[in-house]
Amino acid sequence: MALLRPSADVRPVTDFRSHTSAVIEQVQKTKRPVVLTHHGRSAAVLLDVEAYEALIDEVALLRDVRTAEAQLDAGMGIPHAIVEARLRERYLK
What does pTM read for this prediction? Predict the structure, then answer.
């Protein structure tokens, strides 16, 4: 995801309401998120669909890694040699 440029990528929600198509085009063209503000405070973030999907995929991968690390710490890992032997037995009959 491209870096946020506060001068161009932070907009009041009223500006978004007035120029919805232009803001969406900006997000799609630049691939940068737009932060919408309400009463001077951050209220929402508008992302390009591809950037959103990439972000979700990355979060899912990081959660899987964290789960795997916790399982290893709990002694739930299986040594490589045992896994290899099981796979060879199953698939090389």
Answer: 0.71
Please tell me the distance from the alpha carbon of residue 71 to that of residue 86, in angstroms, as a whole number: 20
Instruction: Name 36's Cβ contacts closer than 8 Å, sequence gap at least 6.
Output: 11, 12, 13, 16, 42, 43, 44, 45, 46
State the pLDDT at residue 1.
74
- pLDDT bin (cut points 50, 70, 90) of residue 16 is very high
Selected residue with higher pLDDT from 38 and 7: 38
Nearest to 44 by CA among 20, 70, 66: 20
Domain spans, the chain: 1-47, 48-93
Q: What class is the 1-47 domain? A: alpha beta
